[in-house]
UniProtKB/TrEMBL annotation:
Any Pfam family: Glycos_transf_1
Record's protein name: Glycosyltransferase involved in cell wall biosynthesis
UniProtKB keywords: Transferase
GO molecular function: glycosyltransferase activity
TM helices/strands, residue ranges: none
Glycosyl transferase family domain sequence ranges: 185-352
Presence of the UniProt keyword Transferase in the record: yes
Length: 373
């Protein structure tokens, strides 16, 4: 098949670009002919909360060759992008959708495809975690322009069916981000991060946003004792001052280590090798790219039972699920994990469980969906 991919590609950085690069490569390996189309402007600078949208020298990025053409805030580019894609005459237009902001631009391109091009979207989110008044109209418009979907969590499936009750779709869990460097010795990792290898190390990793529950994590950490250490690593999408105030007022503030910045790919194994467990205290979720990194490194997880997080953890076998995003419950599960000394058992169980999250399997799911259309 000829597959045109319209989404975030190099030189943009971050989890979406990494996902698209991996998906592109595996479809290419399956014998399909692909061409990547990307944004000439993904977000206006004033709407982007991070430091930069683009790859830096420190990033480990797959430089997929792509055509920058879609400006999300310039409707003329919607028409010219559709024209460029149609000229290539693809069998499939494959996109990724994670925020309603992209509904008008990607939706219009999809609408302008000819009858010989089927439109498929991999859905990260249908209803964003941080809701805005534009969500329902923009998402509704976008969803109507698609022929089929791949959903990566049961929560996303439910949200999709709210908009498209008769949708044609496949479910496939988020594959593992397995392009990161190999793990390193824990003592060496602790040394690089200035940690005490004799303490029980908890990792909170990834972009810091309100719905991810870092405030709950800090309050839960306050219920532990001096034998614990908390590592917070990731760029803050918003003001970090409220979290910093929590840390400053914590009785265990000396045991909280912060790395509030974008974590380059080559640094990822340091954090995941130093930790004994990864915490995902989310207040809401669909799926989480962080959980797939933890699976890749076979690092046990403790996560709140919201959205699709439970699809990445076998409760009591590869990690623990917390019934609700509440401080006391999170603290109790942390204590249980270390009291019962479950780390090695959970790591062993990860080895087989993570086979369900392959990129080849995702490619086959997309191919199967095409057969349904």
């Amino acid at each position: 098949m000829k597959i045109a991919c319209l989404s975030t590609f190099y030189p943009f950085r971050g989890g979406i670009a990494q996902f698209n690069a991996n998906m592109y490569r595996v479809l290419e390996q399956q014998g399909h002919e692909l061409k990547a189309f990307t944004f000439s402007r993904q977000y206006p600078d004033f709407l982007f909360p991070g430091q930069t949208q683009y790859v830096t020298e420190a990033d480990v990025a797959d430089p997929i060759e792509s055509i920058p053409c879609l400006d999300t805030i310039n409707p003329i580019s919607y028409l010219t992008t559709a024209k460029k894609i149609k000229e290539w005459q693809p069998d499939i237009l494959l996109m990724k959708y994670w925020m309603s902001f992209f509904g008008p631009s990607q939706g219009t391109v999809a609408k302008l495809m000819g009858p010989n091009t089927k439109v498929i979207t991999v859905l990260d989110n249908v209803i964003p975690h941080e809701k805005r008044f534009i969500d329902t109209p923009f998402t509704s418009y976008f969803m109507k322009q698609n022929d089929g979907f791949v959903v990566m969590s049961k929560q996303v499936e439910k949200d999709m069916l709210h908009f498209q009750p008769n949708a044609i779709y496949n479910y496939h869990p988020h594959p593992l981000y397995d392009h990161f460097p190999a793990p390193i010795d824990r003592e060496k990792a602790c040394q690089e991060l200035g940690l005490d290898p004799n303490k029980k190390t908890i990792l909170f990793f990834g972009f810091i946003r309100n719905y991810k529950g870092l405030d709950l994590m800090i309050d839960a950490f306050n219920q532990l004792d001096d034998s614990y250490e908390l590592v917070i690593a990731g760029e803050s999408y918003g003001d970090f001052s409220a979290y910093q105030s929590q840390i400053d007022n914590s009785p265990l503030k000396a045991n909280i280590k912060t790395h509030v910045r974008y974590i380059d790919d080559h640094e990822v194994p340091i954090f995941f090798s130093a930790a004994n467990v990864c915490l995902l205290p989310y207040k809401s979720a669909t799926q989480s790219g962080i959980s797939t990194i933890a699976l890749h490194y076979e690092l046990p997880m403790i996560a709140t039972d919201v959205g699709g997080l439970g699809e990445y953890i076998l409760d009591g076998e590869t990690g623990f699920m917390v019934e609700k995003p509440e401080v006391n419950l999170i603290a109790e599960k942390i204590k249980q994990y270390f009291t019962e000394d479950r780390e090695q058992d959970f790591r062993e169980n990860h080895k087989k469980f993570k086979e369900n999250f392959s990129w080849t399997s995702l490619a086959k799911s997309i191919e199967d969906l095409v057969g349904k259309l």
